[in-house]
Amino acid sequence: MAISALNKAILYTLRGDFETVWEGGLRKIDEQIPDTIEYIRDEESPQWLQLDDGLQTYHFTDSEYVSLLSGSDEFRFTIDNEQGIRAIEVPIIFSDKADDIRISQPNTESDDSKNEFRIQVEQSYDYPPVLWRTLTVSEDSRSSGIRVDVDQREPQLNRLLRSVQRLPDGKQEANTAVGLPAAVPTEEQPPIFLISVDTLRYDQHEELHSLIDELGPNAILPSEPRTQGTWTPPSHASMFTGAHPGDHGYVGYRKAPGDKRPINPSLTTIPELLAEKGYKNSALVSHSRILPEFDFGRGFHRFRHDGMGYSDWVTRDSDAKASVNQMIDWIEQDLAVRDHSLFYFLHVFDPHYPYIPPTERIDSPDIDFSRSKTFRSQVDAAKGDDWTYLDGYRNEYDLDPELVREMKEWYSLSVEYTGHQIARFLQYLKTQDLFEESLIIITGDHGEEFGERGFFSHTSLYDGNIRPFMTIKPPASESWPQKDAIDTIDFLPTIAQSVGEYSPEYSGTPIQRKSDATQRITERIYPEWYSISIEADGTKGIFTYDSNYPDRPTKDVIQQGPELEEFYVPCEVRKGNYREEEPIPEIKAKLRQIVEEFLVDKSASYDVTAEASRPSQETMEQLQNLGYK
Ligand SMILES: [Zn+2]
After folding, report:
1. I need a surface site. Which of 426, 461, 564, 622 has the fewest CB within 10 A?
2. Do 401 and 345 sit in the same domain of this protein?
């Protein structure tokens, strides 16, 4: 299956003090793919970069290039050095099957052997030694050729030459150690696991009993956890940066201007922070919106995307079980080197729509997989094309209750299956003596809504969505307070505190020092409306403003006030009472004041020139199949 093969490319990324002067990609793509991507032949490669025959460059936006390599296992490009380029960086992003990559620089005047870069990549990809190589261009030569040969075992592989970067003037030192640990750990720092289970509602404790049991009594189970941003992209960016969505700016893809913005480059991410402490960082993700192209690769030494497409819910090729097996493989490799200063980010997708659990979890042997598509089309038909937050707020939808019940049951079975797999992973950590001293964070990135108050999927700022399941197991040698009010933006400061790098600049608070008496703030940034939920003094207010997507509302809009104000009493909502309550005037005024102060204080958007890649057509199709329009 072509699309799935593309998604399984291993991506290695890096960050260095380089100025990107050309962004491109060199891919060998399965034959069906070019038919589905509208490539436009590009004649505008930068003048200094001359590409060989056989290397065709295409672009699909003004600034992004994809180069398609056909029928050849090697390619060459030549740099015309009139611009005084002193060094370039050649990152190779390649599939899991390439076993030998050689980079050489044959045309410089200096000693050939000195400029021969031979990169042997072992199949394990454990620290590919010099995957990212800086090639110095001889000062007197006006042009240099750089040749990259790729040997591969199988012909149908994805290979990407993603970018060629130039060192900015005055920066002669090219060894920024990109893609490799920034430091050697000076002490035995705890292994850290951040496990994100997509679409995990709070009310799934029973289904997750195997995981909870395995974590043991020292694990914190907050009763009022919160997540940010209402869906996968902003939620994960908040976890990674400890910042609210309006601050990290990665609001995801909604086919609107501003969608191409990656994570705010001025913010440090969890893997970056840990790389500075000598951690070795690995990521295994199952969703295309949290990839390195949106800056999720920063600080990782190993990054793999095993995308879960619609059919994978049936084949189970890349489900939670497969992901756990992959993680175990990596840990086996890593333990040969060290048993500390290791960070793993695992993102599993099984509970997400289409909800289909593994067949062994369903009693009926003739399960009708198409039921979830029927459910989706009923939801889509009920909502209509131009649905917005205010439509959800105003309408209750009349769906087949039996179908809704069935989908909820499938969902819970998928959650249970995922819980079992993570429990199996925890058991494995115990067999390796890694469990006790590890910091383990397990969280939903958001919940899921089955029509409560007119919302489906992961959409609103109500409990079904922003109160996920969450649990945190501190290292056994530390005693952390049991806290109820933990937010996903607390993860970065918590991890920072654990490795002695806490900074008060973070929006979140380390769990180690947390008090429960905090205001809860969650943002929803969409093209049509901006909504923000404020919880304080036992009351929750949701304020909806005109959107200034992808940023927070403008000062004028904030001054004019919200389009809609909603007030709830969370403890009543817990009893199933979703009725709006008019709070006493003092509390109402206080919530309004909190939201205005938060917005006015932070309304300035961040300025970023770098833009993330636009999702490819196949990514868009996959997203559509998963219910994203
Ligand atoms: Zn998600």
Report:
1. 564
2. yes
Together in a domain, 212 and 168: no
Q: Does pLDDT of 606 surpass 50?
A: yes
CA of 412 to the centre of ligand 1 (A): 16
What spacing in Å lies between the alpha carbon of 299 and ligand 1's midpoint?
22
Angle at 404 between CA 399 and CA 405, to 5 degrees: 140
CB 138 within 8 A of CB 151: no
| d(CA 149, ligand 1 centre) in Å | 38
* Exposed / middle / buried, residue 588 (Cβ in 10 Å: 0-12, 13-18, 19+): middle
Q: Which residue has the higher pLDDT, 520 or 610?
A: 520
CA of 376 to the centre of ligand 1 (A): 17
3-state helix/strand/coil string of 146-190: EEEEEEECCCCCCEEECEEEECCCCCCCCCCCCCCCCCCCCCCCC
Q: How is 78-124 classified by DSSP, letter by letter? A: EEEGGG---EEEEEEEE-TTEEEEEEE-TTSSS-HHHHEEEEE--TT
Q: Tell me the CA–centroid distance for residue 198 and ligand 1, in Å.
A: 4
Q: Residue 80's beta-bridge partner residues?
A: 143
Distance of CA 124 to CAs 329, 425, 627, Å?
Answer: 9, 20, 35
Cβ atoms of residues 244 and 523 within 8 Å:
yes
Peptide bond into 354 cis (omega under 30): yes
CB atoms within 10 A of CB 127: 17
Residue 204 and residue 173 share a domain: no
Tens digit of pLDDT for each residue in 539-560? 999 999 999 988 999 999 999 9
If asked whether residues 457 and 412 sit together in one domain, one would say yes
Q: How far is the CA of 39 from the centre of ligand 1 (A)?
A: 29
524 C-alpha vs ligand 1 centroid, how far in Å? Answer: 14
Kindly give the distance from the C-alpha atom of residue 404 to the centroid of ligand 1, in angstroms, as a whole number. Answer: 20
| Average pLDDT value for residue range 269-289 | 87
Q: Measure 232 CA to ligand 1 centroid, in angstroms.
A: 3
* Distance from residue 290's CA to the centre of ligand 1 (Å): 10
Q: Which domain holds residue 308?
A: 192-227+258-477
The answer to which of 5-9, 129-133, 484-488, 583-587 has the lowest mean pLDDT is: 5-9
Section 395-399 average pLDDT: 83
**350 CA distance to ligand 1 middle (Å):** 10
- Both tokens of residue 577? 């009472």
**Count of CB atoms situated within 10 Å of the CB of 68:** 18
My answer on whether 441 and 554 are in the same domain is no
Please answer whether residues 306 and 245 qualify as being in contact, where contact means their C-beta atoms are separated by less than 8 angstroms: no
- The residues, any chain, with a CB within 8 Å of residue 52's CB and separated by 6 or more, are 75, 76, 77, 78
CA distance 344 to 195: 8
Distance CA 345, CA 347 (A): 7
> 404 and 297 in one domain?
yes
Summarised one tens digit per residue, pLDDT across range 158-174 is 333 333 334 333 332 22
> How many domains does one find in the chain?
3
- Identify the helix (H) or strand (E) that includes residue 210: helix 209-215
Tell whether 200 and 176 lie within a shared domain. no
Residue 448 CA to ligand 1 center (angstroms) comes to: 9
